[in-house]
Amino acid sequence: MLEFAKTVELLGKSSICCCSDLIGFCPFCENLVAIWLLATKEFSPMLTLKNIAALDLESVEWDAGRGSVSGFGARRQKGASVTYVLKYRTAEGRQRWHTIGKHGAPWTPDTAREEAKKILGLVARGDDPAAKKIATRRAETVAELCDAYISAAEEGRLLTKRRAPKKASTLATDKGRVERHIKPLLGNLKVAAVKRRDVENFRDDVANGKTAVRIKTGKHGLARVTGGRGTSTRTMALLGVIFSYAEHQGLRADNPVHGIETHAYAERLRRFSDDEFAAIGKALEALPTAWPMALAGTRFLALTGWRRGEMLALRWEDLDIPNRTVFLPDTKTGRSMRPLSAPACDLLQKLDRLGPLVFPASTDAKRKKDDGNTPPAFDKPMAGFQNVWRRVATKAELPADCSPHVFRHSFASVAADLGYSELTIAALIGHKKASITSKYTHHADAVLLAAADAVASAISNKLQGG
Prior knowledge:
By secondary structure, this protein is α+β, with helices and mostly antiparallel strands. Helix content is about 45%, strand content about 10%. The longest helix is centred in the middle third of the chain and has 20 residues, at about 230-250. The radius of gyration is 36 Å and the shape is elongated.
């Protein structure tokens, strides 16, 4: 009781007790003060409809009394509407104002109070609902969500399964799928409003070619967006990752892509026939005006089964020609060691070392330096390789489905024809099945070198029409 009396004294609500000449309270008055304080606390009103109706402009009425929720209140600003709010502090001590909703169905003082209790429960577990609500407003549409995802990936804040940031080439592919397929079909939808049916329609529309288009890119560039089942499946995978990002950011409670069936990948069985190999060999000899490094790169793909990007990124410092080994620091499957066949080594040794890249772009050869004496750097990747390949394919009269990647399938197929095991073939071409053991290997062994020689020699013979 004495503590209540002291509290009242500190508030200036007491003076000299009427029953005593001393400053303070006598035991009798002390009990009266305590009863008054208890009654004040007990019967202070919680927010009611009456309070809401009487709320003045630019004012806040806080919940009070038994059953009240700390920080819960109602606020009227300039208009007639009243908004239920909750003021709380985060685990880091930051004060937040969280808007529960406007007065009116479904929000009443009672329903808003129950919602405030739930929110405070989340805050007690370390959550920050107000911050998440702000983030939701900043990424209201799927298009904005995609932009936020790409930005986070570019900054290296999103890691792949190998716990590394996405490569620039992967990001370029992701951007293309976002701009060509996801934004045109889903971009205007609210993130929180995307349903399973929307995603299923998206899958079918891309598969049926609804987003197929030809787009001019630059002065001479042309992007052919084809769509189809393969594109649909790959874009669905990206869409699932983007919505997982939305989950982690608190923008959605679920991922609408999960559980939706996609089209099976069509197994790529395309390989060059003997006649097509011979036609390619003749075409490579019949294009004297093409950039020599692009023609050499094409032949190198045929002799190694490498991915196009690996060939274009190859640097002289990665090669160990005396040991017929190459170490690629960054491939689709991580760091990769590859054996070099004798035909591939012969090709490399005949090339001029123009710069750090083995197969550089021709831009420096066509551009004069300002002082006229500085030699070209030849340090730019060959962006126009695909154009040279089209010239080769046209000259060889190849079907439209023949891309440089067919060299990879053809190399593996020739190796299989020669009786080599799946693991050996994986080691020759840098397939993911060989990545587990290759990181412990520092040079190609005799078995792999013999296999590389046999396959490359067979393909070299085919290119010569044998």
